[in-house]
């Protein structure tokens, strides 16, 4: 009887310790927002596949920062609609490869409907890491990139149809780049450290 009671007390203490560690880990998580949606009715690249590349000082950033651990989860994202009809968008995440100037698509969200005059949040769960770049592909005349007029902003336009994670883009691939100077990506993403 005493042995059984002792085992139960040890088990309860162990479970309580796990619960405390789980709550502490959750309490220590950092949440940030990357990027920014376009202003309603703003011009830019519609029906495009783009990747954030460079942001001027003071402008929204599209590169995943180091943060507490360097590892993050994108929990939601949004894109601004425009025009008279709904469009469709898909968040994409790119990571540098060992080849200079090339990036691998490592994550993508579901294709989401974006209403003509709004930017609702789309829940997702995409694990990313320090240095990854946010991108967006759009359909149905939805603007993927928007013009800022700031010469320090630069987006990479990706040519060719991408099939999904694993695709490599950049010089020397079938998915080469074009430059969209003075543009940013029409996407805002919420990230939580892990």
Describe the protein in words.
- 13% of the residues lie in helices and 43% in strands.
- It is built from 1 helix and 15 strands.
- The chain has one domain (30-193): Jelly Rolls, CATH 2.60.120.
- Strands 3, 5, 6, 7, 9, 11, 12 and 13 form an 8-stranded antiparallel beta sheet that branches. Strands 1-15-4-8 form a 4-stranded antiparallel beta sheet, with no helix packed on it. A 3-stranded antiparallel beta sheet has the order 2-10-14, with no helix packed on it.
- It has 194 residues and is mainly beta.
Quick summary:
This protein has one helix at 2-27; strands spanning 31-36, 44-46, 49-54, 71-78, 87-96, 103-108, 112-114, 122-129, 133-139, 143-147, 154-158, 168-169, 177-181, 183-185, 187-193.
Main sheet overview: 8 strands, antiparallel
Q: Mind telling me the C-alpha Rg?
A: 21 Å
CATH class: Mainly Beta
Number of domains: 1
The secondary structure category is: mainly beta
Supply the CATH architecture.
Sandwich
The CATH topology: Jelly Rolls
What's the total helix number?
Answer: 1
Instruction: Give the number of DSSP strands.
Output: 15
Shape by Cα distribution: globular
Mean pLDDT: 87
Helix-residue proportion:
10-25%
Strand portion: 35-45%
Low-confidence segments, given as residue ranges, are 5-25
The span between the termini is 43 Å
Helix/strand order = HEEEEEEEEEEEEEEE
């Amino acid at each position: 009887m005493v042995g059984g009671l002792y085992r139960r007390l040890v088990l309860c203490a162990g479970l309580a310790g796990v619960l405390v560690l789980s709550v502490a880990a959750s309490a220590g998580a950092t949440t940030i927002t990357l990027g920014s949606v376009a202003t309603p009715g703003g011009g830019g690249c519609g029906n495009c596949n783009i990747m954030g590349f460079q942001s001027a000082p003071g402008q929204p950033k599209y590169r995943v920062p180091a943060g507490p651990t360097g590892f993050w989860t994108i929990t939601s994202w949004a894109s601004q609609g425009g025009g008279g009809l709904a469009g469709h968008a898909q968040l994409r995440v790119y990571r540098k490869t060992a080849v200079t100037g090339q990036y691998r698509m490592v994550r993508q969200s579901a294709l989401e409907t974006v209403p003509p005059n709004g930017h609702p949040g789309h829940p997702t769960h995409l694990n990313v890491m320090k240095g990854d770049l946010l991108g967006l592909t759009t359909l149905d005349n939805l603007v993927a990139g928007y013009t800022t007029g700031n010469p320090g902003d630069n987006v990479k336009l990706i040519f060719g149809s991408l099939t999904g994670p694993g695709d490599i883009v950049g010089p020397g691939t079938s998915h080469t780049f074009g430059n969209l100077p003075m543009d940013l990506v029409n996407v805002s993403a919420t990230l939580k450290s892990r």
